[in-house]
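Review form for a predicted model. The reviewer records the input and the model, then writes brief findings.
Reviewer: anonymous (R2)
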Amino acid sequence: MICGRIVSTLGMALAAGLGQETEVREVRIATAGTDTEITVVVGGEVTARHLMIQDPPRLILDLEGAVLGLGRDRYEGIGRGGVIRMRSSQFQPDIVRIVFDLALDLDHEVVTDPGAVRVTFPNRGPPFPPWSTAAETTEAETTEAETTAAETTEARAGPGEPSRTLAAVRQEEPRISVVYDSASMLDVLAGFSEFADISVVPNGEIASVTVRGIDIRAQPWDIALNAILSAHNLGWHTTESGIIVVDWLENLQARDQLLSETRVIRINYARADSVAEALRHLATPNRGQVVAFSGSNTVIVTDAPSVVARMDTIIASLDRRLPQVAIEAKIVFVNRTDVQQLGIVYDLKERDGAFVEQGLNELIAAPDPNEPPQLVDHDGDGVSDESFFRQTNETLVNLSGDAIAALANANDRPLLPALQILTSVAFGEFSLFAFLEALESHQLSDVQAAPSIQVVDNAHARIQVGERTPIRVLEAGAQTEAARVNVQFEDTGIILDVIPHVTNNNQIRLELMAERSGLKLGLSDVGFVFEKQIGETTLLLEDGETAVIGGLTLSEVSRSESGIPGLMHLPWIGALFRSTKENEVKQDLIILVTPHIIGGPRGG
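Model under review:
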């Protein structure tokens, strides 16, 4: 006895497309990074106008120059990405109006591309699987372009699992409730065929299969049918004309291994070669082929139909619109140098005898180059004649008779003093000259650089403002005379190197390196040295948050004293017999970075 009954049914209206160039063929909802992206697929170019209405929030999208070609005019229970439901109508003879009921009133962006209109807005909920209206057309009205579009929106299960359309996978077909106590599989298939208004062709061997103990409540009809068939080791696949063929799973697996399908898939946002590299790991060994064509950024896939369908589904997840990130960095380098020097130089000589000249270092040019130069005073005024002066670095003492001459602190004098005071004191036959020299200087260097760059999520970006400095390098291990000289280049200046990654919760992970570098004359014979301040790190920031990724404070103080032995350590008056030098160098380095997510609805 056959006791099968359908408890409740929902009607399904199917409408064939009008075959127009500007036909609205399909509506897709998918994730795009942290955003929800609605794609309206059209057959040509249209003009899009949009309006957001509050209480309740609704997005109205008018497509001028289009005709309606969707399978139904209402789609209830979408419930993903912030979209509750959708309805469409031919608002005017040349205008299609699509209304999306939304959960929240959010800022949105509408972009019109050839063959598609895209609406993006932030996704405040969890990630969700894609959804599509999967517009249906008759085989006679399906053009080559429509066939390609249908292939890109079709998804089939893997070997041993039933193949079904993308709409079936996304559980958006009308819902059904059925209870079978004892029913023939042929009667079950007939009931589903009547309910969904589809054509079903069963394998003749399944007529003996009896369905018992089935109780399904409010499930999409395709999901319910798949559950019933799977429980009896059966599956189904859909022909290009939309006919469902039911067969044993073993037969479906054998069929899938014998068939081969080639599909050309257009990649929108990702690079075709990177997508192809990922798909090659999914291809059937010694059978499947994946080829990337960079000219049109497409991927050509040849494999079993189930494998090709699985690759198509994966591409839909990989090929998504990526957000862009603008990174602003600031490098602040402050260099402060304070110098204090104080020294007293003493010059003691006999007034009519020996004397010492230190600092002036004046010499007469000797007539014979081989003879040492002599000091001369032609006019007898006690000063060497200027016409014979030349420079030297030696302390010169001229002794005439029995005399005393002394010079103190002469070799440790301030460099380029700002103050010089000369005093002279007579002690009988001697004169004591004292030179008081003092210097105090303050130097401040403040360098601020603010490099900024914009880059797509997960891409590498680099900006440099500076120069490439050539460096001569001798060949290692060779003699200096015979060494080969090579030229290497060193990047100097302000350099920002960064790789951003936008997380699902709108945070930004940065792999960043900021550098300030320059040349400085070396103290030895190496020539020039490179001064660098570098901050390299990985950090997680909020959108628009500023972080200090590097900070360095260097303080260097040096103090030296020199003077007359014994006298320089006397209490109170010891300072009169010594020279003091004090240098203080302070360097501060701060590197700050601020990322911003731009593009899409968050752009601006």
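Findings: The two ends are 69 Å apart (CA to CA).
Further findings: The first helix runs from residue 144 to 152.
Recommendation: see findings above.
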